[in-house]
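Morning. Coffee machine broken again, so started the prediction first thing and wrote up yesterday's gels while waiting. Chain of 133 residues, entered below exactly as on the submission form.
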Amino acid sequence: MRNKLYFALLVLLSISIQCSDSNNTTELTPEEIIQKDEELGQREKEINAFIAAAKCSSSGCGFMAFGSKPCGGPWKYIVFPNSIDKDKLTKMVDAYNELQHQYNLLTNAISDCSVVMPPEEVACVNGVCTIVK
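Came back before lunch.
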């Protein structure tokens, strides 16, 4: 009985070692890292421009999680007018978040792992959606 337990433990240990070694087979060159950084920056500019083109009014404002921290959760929350094409914005932000998540995995990125809380209140202030608190 004791030998079977040791054997099972040995098998599980060898499987876990094999799995961890096979996950880190892709390495990015410095040029590829710069290219991915630039792509993330360009997509963020496109998202911000898309939001800025929509004006807030009596329709109010909304918010959504933006970015992907290496240890989980968003980097921040973005606010937008409810008059915006929310389906298009959601697709743009989801694509950005996934690209950043993949970047984090490929570069073994780290972060402070602090939790960014969603805004309690957003409002249209001088024609711009703003986090009030």
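Helices lie at 2-22, 30-53, 86-107. Going to sketch it on the whiteboard this afternoon.
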